[in-house]
Amino acid sequence: MKLHVSLPGLEMKNPVMPASGCFGFGKEFAQLYDLNDLGAIAIKATTEEARFGNETPRVAETEAGMLNAIGLQNPGLKGVTEQELPWLQQLDTPILANVAGTKMEDYEAVAAGLSESGMVAALELNISCPNVKEGGITFGTDPKLAAELTKRVKHVSDVPVYVKLSPNVTDITEIAKAVEHAGADGLSLINTLSGMKIDPATRKPLLANEIGGLSGPAIKPVAIRMIYQVRQVTELPIIGMGGIMGMEDVLEFMIAGADAVAVGTANISNPFACPEIIQELTDWAGTEPAADWAGWKQGGVKA
Amino acid sequence: MKLHVSLPGLEMKNPVMPASGCFGFGKEFAQLYDLNDLGAIAIKATTEEARFGNETPRVAETEAGMLNAIGLQNPGLKGVTEQELPWLQQLDTPILANVAGTKMEDYEAVAAGLSESGMVAALELNISCPNVKEGGITFGTDPKLAAELTKRVKHVSDVPVYVKLSPNVTDITEIAKAVEHAGADGLSLINTLSGMKIDPATRKPLLANEIGGLSGPAIKPVAIRMIYQVRQVTELPIIGMGGIMGMEDVLEFMIAGADAVAVGTANISNPFACPEIIQELTDWAGTEPAADWAGWKQGGVKA
Amino acid sequence: MIQKEWMSVVSIDEIAASIFEVVLEGDMPERIQAPGQFVHVKTSPHVAPLLRRPVSISEHWPEQRRMALVFRAEGEGTSRMAAWRAGDEVDVLGPLGNGFDTSDVDEGEKALIVGGGVGVPPLLGLAKQLAGHGVRVQTVLGFADEPSAFFQERFSALGDCFVSTIDGSIGETGFVTDVIDRRGLSYDAIYACGPLPMLRALDSSYATAKGKLSLEERMGCGIGACFACVCHTADDPDGTSYRKVCSDGPVFPWGEVVLS
Amino acid sequence: MIQKEWMSVVSIDEIAASIFEVVLEGDMPERIQAPGQFVHVKTSPHVAPLLRRPVSISEHWPEQRRMALVFRAEGEGTSRMAAWRAGDEVDVLGPLGNGFDTSDVDEGEKALIVGGGVGVPPLLGLAKQLAGHGVRVQTVLGFADEPSAFFQERFSALGDCFVSTIDGSIGETGFVTDVIDRRGLSYDAIYACGPLPMLRALDSSYATAKGKLSLEERMGCGIGACFACVCHTADDPDGTSYRKVCSDGPVFPWGEVVLS
Ligand SMILES: Cc1cc2nc3c(=O)[nH]c(=O)nc-3n(C[C@H](O)[C@H](O)[C@H](O)COP(=O)(O)OP(=O)(O)OC[C@H]3O[C@@H](n4cnc5c(N)ncnc54)[C@H](O)[C@@H]3O)c2cc1C
Ligand SMILES: Cc1cc2nc3c(=O)[nH]c(=O)nc-3n(C[C@H](O)[C@H](O)[C@H](O)COP(=O)(O)OP(=O)(O)OC[C@H]3O[C@@H](n4cnc5c(N)ncnc54)[C@H](O)[C@@H]3O)c2cc1C
Ligand SMILES: Cc1cc2nc3c(=O)[nH]c(=O)nc-3n(C[C@H](O)[C@H](O)[C@H](O)COP(=O)(O)O)c2cc1C
Ligand SMILES: Cc1cc2nc3c(=O)[nH]c(=O)nc-3n(C[C@H](O)[C@H](O)[C@H](O)COP(=O)(O)O)c2cc1C
Ligand code: FES
Ligand code: FES
To answer: Which of B87, C28, C110, C164 qualifies as a FRET site for B54, CA 20 to 30 Å off?
Structure first.
């Protein structure tokens, strides 16, 4: 079976990409393995201005998961286009650039700047980051705002736009439909669940920001359910994520309705997670009679 | 320190009760230990008519959690009041009766019947069960419906009414405020997160019902976050639950803002979970200088 | 009386491909009432795997305070069990459920015992008990293939033992029902445990038989409280009739429950 | 070059109350560049504990392909590590970060090494290296109490070693700064590792010193990609200047980062 996946803007050798925020801008991982092995790379969120992010501690461990409240630390649009993206051009792997902001204008400015740079294959609109005090998440929980933002960003972008959905909503299909109608080229889900941990010894939250985003295997059942639900209301390509640790998880996401997957937290607990998963998938594909993912998925759960 | 907790309708020797659905109607556990050791008992949901529930498999294991889709199997109002509640009367432990239905009228009928029976100390309105095809969950995700249902049930009940909130919502504080204004005497949260698991080998969902409720340690960060948020918008007593496995978890919930806690999944993986936790708490209380929970909580996170 | 006990692992052996026999020591064996009862095993002292695993008691020796379990190491939990070592202390809940009631057959009568795969273990305890009561025991065991077959000798020591494998690598080729029919085995009661397709085939082929069968179902609590493991009854006037496999079963009278 | 390696546990010993020293063997020791580098340890082969634990390399012997870690068993992850046994294979990522650059002191000059609690281990490798370069090493070690104290002898073998404990159960009563002031210890450079309050006290008491200090911060990836472990720099014109403890540190020049 061929692992290749073709999504708007993203010609992927295999359906596996690192998830935004868990891979920086790739340089650290380039010391560890060949980034050309990846299907694509979702880089860390870019905001208009450079951000320091939240105070530390920014991460905490939970049962089979972790909380993070990095707070969108990044060098800003200028820093990303001047210091990060040029280096990534040497790769033969499409770059999915994650776009964040607090106002619609911020998103527009970042999307326009990244699109104009000619160095990214597609944009991923992060309307779902739970770790910034204002903005961000509201766009992800209100279908009207999500749609308007999508429309405005589409307007200024020459590359395809994926909208990254928040799981912290009553009905994810509503948001999915809203952004589809607004012109999104694809969806990615799920971002982190909003969570908190308190240390009984100190009686204080473990994160300086108190609340953070829960990721990792703990949230996989929520991710699978949401992708399964969203798959039933839209034909848009879906990049699925949330707790992927190994090949079996990738298959589970593909059956649920994903067209490609992103691996987040697994990179943090094992920096070789992506190439290990891709190797497993390659071995599996060697024994799988279907010609491609589309054929293989016909045997699975019906949307 | 005294472990005693006094909530509307519930005079509890300690803040620990088994959570609804994870303890049946108590009889099985009565073979294992003295149910008078418990702070209270939340019994399995009662519906107006007897229900068989969903087909099996009804449970699946996930990372640090489990999915269930029991589907509210129960002997119905008549069965519960005639076969289950009389036996529980011998206990010196308050009974919190979980009420479920698909229409407002069902809830009213069950609440009225249980209240009139004189055998329950309080009601817990289950507006959040994700495992029945119609009704149930919609009440838990729409503040207006939740408020109306609360009002109607309050109207027919002589005992205090706790409303059990669903975590599958965009803003849990909105629902909390709505049911508070409608007259709820207390809140209990969280119910299970809606989730799904697919077996890559069979390419089918593990649960016959496809989607089920995720519980256990995996969801604790979401529960803590929601209780912390709800604590900031209401003075109502909160029964906190979601992933409690040991004493440290109880303390974490109390600091986050709970006034008592319910232990669900832990009973399933260890039927002695409640008495073990209560013993740990008792030992801890012996070394804790504060006079009571109120005093102890002053040292914790501020709501 | 159900208890939760830290039992010690006396020995653990791989008796067939991925099939392990573990002998445990503690107070629990004294409380076992009948073959076919099971235990609910916490496979690790840590949070995960969260759920216990139901495993039948294959044999027990109350005087030595010992009992044996035989399991296939497959998923997360049973793989942890396969890593147990002699001397480990393991968390076991039991004895659970109702085992085989053998009052269907009297001394001198013939019992047909039919087991498939990891349904075979509890039948060993049953066969020993029946043989002890002077019942004539015939056994038909079905396995996938030779490497995964086990216990043929132990059953042969108690009476005729026929083996079938799907690939014919040992014994007769085909399913257990093929063996029973081909050999025209007669019996006064049947006792069966194994995969659902096997039980269904037996149930439909020998619908009027006397006997008992033991069911598997996904479980939560294992003690009858969570309603994870229910099955429909054959006689169900209003659609709400049910049995809990964990506490009403896992052994049921032939024909009582729906094998769906 | 950072590698992820299954290293084998050569030995593990409890050298003080809940303080364990583990010796690991593999290829990694050959790649260690400086004392103060650390490794990021997967404490269990299972999913949980999910995050790796950062632990300093206390000593290494490249010729024997060995290195040592010393850790306090406290939470979930370090308790798993304490249960490691000789012969186990464990998943280690490293060597990580930048260690102690000792160019601040020359042969014959005096280095003051100050360690507190589990900040002490990486300083042993440092002290050995300094002593090897002919630097005069004085050490001040702070511990909570006698049972949790360790490595006094190993440091004494390299130069003067003073110990302080909070309860005075061994050594001098009080904090490390009390010892330094009371004894009027002089130095050409300070090297410190320990709890934040200790580092802050040193930083404010000896603000103009030359030297290096090693920081701790909650970590995610350990390789510089996730931005979990950042700290502010002392010189920060627009509020966005930062260092990553895992990849820029954990050792920083005296005064470079804000100890908040
Ligand atoms: C009453 C009873 C007695 C049993 N006796 C034996 C025995 O003696 N030997 C033996 O090898 N097996 C026995 N089984 C089956 C055994 O319980 C499963 O093989 C085992 O639970 C699978 O666990 P795992 O960790 O390998 O799989 P996982 O896939 O990790 O299990 C995930 C979840 O599914 C459940 N599950 C998976 N397969 C089954 C199954 N077939 N039946 C019930 N639950 C399942 C697990 O208990 C767990 O909750 C028995 C089952 C029941 C209900
Ligand atoms: C660069 C560096 C080097 C270190 N070297 C040593 C050493 O040589 N010996 C030693 O005993 N300890 C050392 N530590 C501290 C050690 O990492 C923590 O004690 C350990 O992570 C705690 O894990 P746990 O499983 O006991 O606690 P848990 O409470 O289970 O840990 C939960 C999470 O918090 C993190 N965490 C908890 N405490 C700390 C801490 N003090 N610093 C950083 N993260 C923490 C854990 O890594 C984990 O992610 C070092 C820390 C850093 C950053
Ligand atoms: C440390 C960390 C940082 C993250 N930063 C971002 C980010 O900048 N933008 C974004 O869209 N998602 C971010 N995420 C979310 C992930 O991309 C992913 O959606 C989520 O973690 C679920 O996948 P996982 O369980 O595989 O980690 C971050 C997650 C983590 C753990
Ligand atoms: C098997 C099972 C059955 C449940 N049945 C009910 C129910 O009938 N009514 C209800 O309000 N909640 C029910 N719940 C939800 C629990 O009461 C609890 O809110 C939830 O599981 C979170 O707590 P936990 O993580 O401690 O299990 C059920 C949970 C489980 C696991
Ligand atoms: S497993 Fe809980 S009732 Fe049977
Ligand atoms: S721990 Fe990830 S950047 Fe330092």
So the answer is: B87
